[in-house]
Amino acid sequence: MIYRNVMRYAGGRYLWVALLLVASSFVLYFSQGGVQPPNGGTWQGYVLGTVAALLIVWLAWLGIRKRRYAGGSGTVQGWTSAHIYLGTAVLLLATLHCALQFGWNVHTLSYVLMCGVIFSGFYGLYQYLTQPQLLARNRAGEARAGLFAELYDMDGEARRLAARCSPAVGLAVKSGVERTMLGGGMGAQLLQRDGSRFMQAGSGEAAATLLPNADQQPLVDFVAARIPRAAKRSEARNLQDLLAILVRRQSLLRQLRRDIALQGWLRVWLYVHVPMTIALIVALIVHIVTTFIYW
Amino acid sequence: MADFQIAIIGAGPAGLSAAARAQILDQQNQVSTPSYVLLEGFEVVAKTIQRYQKGKKVMAEPGFLDLRSDVRFEEGRREEILGWWQGRCEELGINIRYQAEVSAITGSKGAFDIALVNGENISAENIILGIGLEGNPRMLGVDGERLDRVQYNLEDPKAFHDEIILVVGAGDSAIENALALSEQNDVFILNRRDEFSRAKEGNLNLILKAISDDGHRLNCFYSTSIKSVTQNSEGKPLHVVMKTPEGDITMDCDRIVARLGAIPPRRFVESIGIQFPSERRDAIPELSRHYESNVPGVYIVGSLAGYPLIKQAMNQGYDVVEFINGNFIKPADYPLLQHQLLGLPYDREVDELLERFQALIPMFRKLNSLAFRELIIESTIIAGYPSDQVLDDARRKINTLASKLRAEGRNPRMTKVIAEGDVIYDRGEFGTSFFTIVDGEVVLENEVEGQQLRTTLGRGEFFGESSLLSGRPRGEKAIAGSNCIVVETPRRTMLKLMNSNEEVRSGIDWIFVVRELQRHFAPFAPLRELRDLGARVGTRQFDAGATIYDEGDEAASLFIVRSGAITLSRQVDGQDVLVSQLRSGKLFGQMALMGDGIRRETATATVAAEVIEVERAEFLELVQRNDARIRQLQEDVSRQVIDKARMSVRPDAAGLFRFLMRNGLGEATNVLVIDERLCVGCDNCEKACAETHEGLCRLDRKSGPTAVDVHIPSACRHCEQPHCMKDCPPNAILRAASGEVFITDACIGCGNCEKNCPYDVIRLSYAAPKKPGLLSWLLFGRGSGPGERQGFEPDAEAKARGKKAVKCDACVNVKGGPACVRACPTGAAKRIGPAEFVALVEGRMQ
Q1: Chain A environment of B826 (Cβ under 8 Å)
Q2: What is the Cα–Cα distance from A150 to A251, expressed in whole angstroms?
Q3: Are residues B130 and B203 in the same domain?
Q4: Mean predicted lDDT score pLDDT of chain B
Q5: Which residues on chain B place their C-beta less than 8 Å from a C-beta of chain A?
Q6: Which of B261, B252, B298 is nearest to B107 (CA)?
Q7: Distance (Å, whole) CA B139 – CA B131
Q8: How many CB atoms lie within 10 A of CB A161?
Q9: How many other CB atoms sit within 10 Å of the CB of residue B478?
Q10: I want to staple B766 with a disulfide (CB 3.0 to 4.6 A). Which of A191, B399, B430, B798 is the partner?
Q11: pLDDT tens per residue, range B49-82
Q12: Does any domain span residue B630?
């Protein structure tokens, strides 16, 4: 096997490391008892807490290792694989450390932030394992730049053909091309919202109106509706050609919009995962310091 | 009495330097009328350099060679250098005649007659030819071809506005000019044929699109040629009559740009009586040590003589004028040879040593002495010493001089001193240089079927030809024997030599065939017993895509791939299915001799390939030997039959394999392949590349083809026979022993490698500004942070240094291997070699 995903890196080496860690944590946890019930204050609790805190720092270090391009040990894939398995283990370690004692305090805040980081990580992992295939399938072997280049050609072609049609069609298509929207804010990108518009000429003295053109379908319908009503054969042919271009354009825009959305989903979770990690580290410092102050 | 003692033809660097020397000698001798004339076909000096783009940086390689000329030359911009030369011409009052194109040279030494195109005749005792390799542009061949507004090159398409321009030609330069001009002019392109068959695919698409686009100010006349051009007295300045399939038509225009290619200078050179040693296109005429050709009195210098660098050409121009005047000065490269030969255990003059060396090597004996001298200058001399004491002394001598020279800012090539028993190269190392034994012994060590095989080579013998010709890694280990002196010649020099010397070529070809036969059929047979047989076996060449044999053919020969790659395919349900892919060193077509004599598949060349063909008689002779490895051969065939049968029932796998081969993996040794099912598009690979290579990324993840989720980004394939290395004037592209092809600082930015790379992975770029420290980025927002990339404006220093070629070096100097692969968080980016291609394809099919 030349390619293995992060879960199977080195035959799942870090899965075994994580399992070993969890197993020994359980042993440690159940060795508690006697005078004190299991909690963070027993020596076992301290050990679990220290290991978990060190692990969190190490997990966060991935952000630095990833950017050490020339040096750094191992491969980033190896680090990522370990990051996932050991990160999952931290969830158990910390839970055993606190022995399920929660309250409205900074200690539980750390715990909650940690859960946020870990679960956003799970979501990211799910994205990393599933989205690339969807992305590749959607692009069908073409690069995004290639799709844009083709769209640009189609735009030119549509304008050229529209110029030969009636002024109403000309205006609709020209404005439709100019007011096509891709991307936008984060929500628009992720949810593939389409704010495209086109302009329809008013009849007689009436002013032109701007109509929504989501997914380009209204414009396609507009042109298609004119084909059976064409007065001349040459006009019908021009409209047919134009329609073919508009439909191709529509499909390209769908591909691009989906590509942008999929790429977005692959990235957006990091905007939760990373800031929350920083918050977690701050909370963790406060947790440790207060623990020692009130000892 | 001739008009001049010396006629110098061509005012390029060589010609100018020669003329300057002649002028200064005239001044010293207080001659009132010049003893020489410099003839230039154009209206300016250094036509080739004039044609460089504006502001182009001209480098002064090789750095280790000193300039010996009365004309200034150092690294600088095109305009600066042309300025120095033009200025020096005027300052010295050089006797130059512009627009004096030579049409013929007759006569002999002492009385040459030079006929000019304008009808004049000049006589001279000696001739120096410094006309370069570019040749003169092909003219229209009609009346009016020399009118002012009929031009044969185009410096700046932006210089013309709203003109009607006819562009004549159908090659890449015609297309590029027509497209550029049509941005602000009305352009008609005249193609003599009915299609653009000579153009590159990219240009072809562009021109066809532009022609069919109504909005573009470009139109095409197919099957059309110009009949005549005359000057108009009013209206548009030119009146053109064109011959079209529909009869003659006329048109008035502002300008004609004819791009009809160049007439190679070879025909002109041959017309003088100068002989070329072979028909090969890049053959170089034979010259004496004083650059004199086989026609006494005619001297050849510069790129026509095989010296593509400006400094070499200028030195030769100087030297040759001195020689003609009877001053046999030591050439400017004399000290180079001194340094190279310093570590040898002889105390003799350079020239004497060279003569002795040449006499000791049978293959080089017939080489002319200038060519041999050049070979040594470009080679490394390796000297092996037996005892520690002598070895230490030799090393000390070399080091002392080297450090002294380095202190003067020079970096000469010195003798490479090694100890007896040291490894010259190891098995599996990449290396394309060629070794000749001048003295002593070298031991080649090999392992065949678990047994060690040692061969001792002696004086005059050579080795390393296998990697030189095939591009594959070394198949054996070479160890310095007693008192050995070995000449290690780089591939480019060797190929140049093979192209111009039939003797060297056939000698190397022959030994290659013999060693290849030995390897495949009888590894334990003494080489001498196979020599006669080797002479009877031929080598054939095929262009990419050419068929070697067809399925169903009756045949009685087998093949060994000498270089390139071969695709074997079969017809399965009417479809062409790839069943096998072979690289250099592999056998194919054995079934014709070991089976029923019918070809079971079609063999085509994947990339340009050379194959050795072994006929039945020679095959039988080989396998009937006692030491033949017949069982091995049979086992190989059985295994191949199974593999091919398996592939032919898997047309999907075959399809992917074909896709890989089409994209250059047939000749790749190390290629970046991305699994699209894993790639999240984070571009960490590109960032890592830029961060480890002075801010310049050498791969483009997004571009490049994709099939079955296998993506081949634009990145170097590290080809077996690198196309980029083919034509690098300063020899700046090297291959590391571990296989990485990389570009050194000696690059002069000429762009040849960029043009020669079929995979578009080399570009010319200014150096990127240095990255700020982490803190100054973090606290003061200077520059870009780790992994951040910014489009940069080159700073003044980078601009002064000029653009240099940039390509992937597979992180040859980075600890831990290629940064792109190490930085990939998902394991999608891998660098793989030919051995893993099958695994890659099979992994996809699960």
Answers
A1: 5-6, 77, 80, 128, 132
A2: 11
A3: no
A4: 88
A5: 214-215, 675-681, 684, 687-688, 691-692, 702-707, 709, 786-787, 814-816, 819, 821-828, 830, 832, 836, 839-840, 843
A6: B298
A7: 18
A8: 22
A9: 23
A10: B798
A11: 887 767 777 888 777 788 999 999 988 888 899 9
A12: yes
Chain segment B714-745, per-residue pLDDT in tens: 999 999 889 998 878 888 898 888 889 999 98
B142, part of any domain: no
Judging contacts by C-beta atoms under 8 Å, the chain A residues touching residue B816 are 72
Q: Indicate the residue of B703, B815, B819 with minimum beta-carbon distance to A143.
A: B703
Length of chain B: 846
Between CA B223 and CA B229, with CA B227 as vertex, the angle to 5 degrees is 125
Q: Could you tell me the residue ranges of all domains in chain A?
A: 6-139+269-293, 144-266
The H or E element that residue B570 is part of is: strand B565-572
| Euclidean distance between CA atoms B373 and B371, whole angstroms | 5
Please tell me whether residues B723 and B596 are part of one structural domain: no
Position A137: which residue type?
Answer: R
How are the residues of chain A apportioned to helix, strand and coil, as percentages rounded to the nearest 5? Answer: 70, 5, 25
Looking up tokens 């060190």 gives A54
Task: Identify whether residues B247 and B303 lie together within a single domain.
Answer: no
> Could you read off the pLDDT of A228-262 as tens digits, one per residue?
888 888 888 999 999 999 999 999 999 999 999 99
**Is the per-residue pLDDT at A61 higher than 80?**
yes
Would you say how long chain A is, in residues? 295
**B536 within some domain:** no
Give me the pLDDT at residue B788, please.
72
Q: Which residues contact B391 (CB under 8 A, 6 or more apart)?
A: B385, B417, B419
For the domain that residue B582 is a member of, what is the CATH number?
2.60.120.10
Boundary residue ending a domain (B281, B302, B324):
B324
Instruction: State the residue range of the domain holding B580.
Output: 544-649
Is the Cβ pair A75, B824 closer than 8 Å? yes
| Stretch B771-799: mean pLDDT | 77
CA distances to B234, B256, B258 from B230, in Å: 12, 12, 15
Among the partner-chain residues A2, A133, A144, the one whose CB lies closest to the CB of B702 is A144
Kindly state whether residues B720 and B824 are assigned to the same domain.
yes
Indicate if the pLDDT at residue B132 is higher than 80: yes
Structure tokens at B735: 């291959």
Residue B652 in this model has a pLDDT that exceeds 90: no
Q: Is residue B513 part of a domain?
A: no
The ipTM assigned to this model is 0.90
Asked if A69 lies within 8 A of B691 by C-beta distance, the reply is: yes
Same domain membership, residue B729 and residue B633? no
Alpha-carbon distance B283 to B280, whole Å? 5
Place of tokens 């831990």: B816
For chain B, the C-alpha Rg in angstroms (whole number) is 30
Give the separation between CA A102 and CA A117, rounded to whole angstroms.
Answer: 18
Interface of A with B in 15-54 (CB under 8 A): none
Tokens standing for residue B679: 């790639």
Rounded percentage of chain B residues whose pLDDT exceeds 70:
98
Together in a domain, B560 and B597: yes
Q: Are residues B189 and B83 in the same domain?
A: no
Average pLDDT over residues B688-714: 90
Tell me the β-bridge partners of B805.
Answer: B764
Q: How far apart are CA B378 and CA B372, in angstroms?
A: 10
Domain end call among B324, B344, B360: B324
* Number of independent structural domains in chain B: 5
Which pLDDT value is given to residue B374?
85
pLDDT at residue A202, as a whole number: 81
The shortest C-alpha distance from B82 to chain A (Å) reads 42
- pLDDT band at A295, cuts 50/70/90? low
What is the average pLDDT across A272-277?
Answer: 96
By Cβ distance, the residue of A79, A133, A266 closest to B677 is A133
- What is d(CA B82, CA A16) in angstroms, rounded to the nearest whole number? 70
Which pLDDT band, with edges at 50, 70 and 90, does B502 fall under?
confident
Residue B789: what pLDDT? 66
